[in-house]
Specification:
With 184 residues, the protein is mostly helical. It contains 4 helices and no strands.
Length: 184
Amino acid sequence: PERENNSFVLGKQSIRDKQIPSLLLKLKKSVKELRAELEEKDEEIHKLKRNPKLSQLQEIEADLKVYADETVRLRHLLEQTLKMRIITEIDAEDISELEEKYLIQLNLTGIIKNDNMEMAAAIKSQQESYTALEQELQESQESKLKMQKENQVLKKRLRDREKSVSYTHLRAHETGRNLVCRLL
């Protein structure tokens, strides 16, 4: 079986070997025809270039491109010029009016700054007085606590004295009989 396979492969190669020369001839013929066609086209182009109508057309196309580019450039310059003209057409009255408005705004800004500084000073003063009042309140609360403690001490002393006064008062009203009992 392998020999048959090899012979088959060899058979294909022999067929290919026969086809290659005919294929080469066809390709060479095709290359010749294409070269001839290329030469004809080159000659035709050369004739067209010598033709005055074609060269004029090319010149006209080049001029058209230059004209279009110049038109775009000039349009741009015109737009810039119009913008500058609009800017420079502002009347002197408009300028003086704008200056007046600027001065008024500047004056108002100064007034607002001064008011702001005065308000800041007033706030600072109020904060200082608030701090002083808080301190006084704290001192008066401390003083109140001290007075309450002293008041309690004085009430206690007063109660103690009332007792002693009561006892002394009782002794002043003692009779002889009560006095004897007390000494016992």
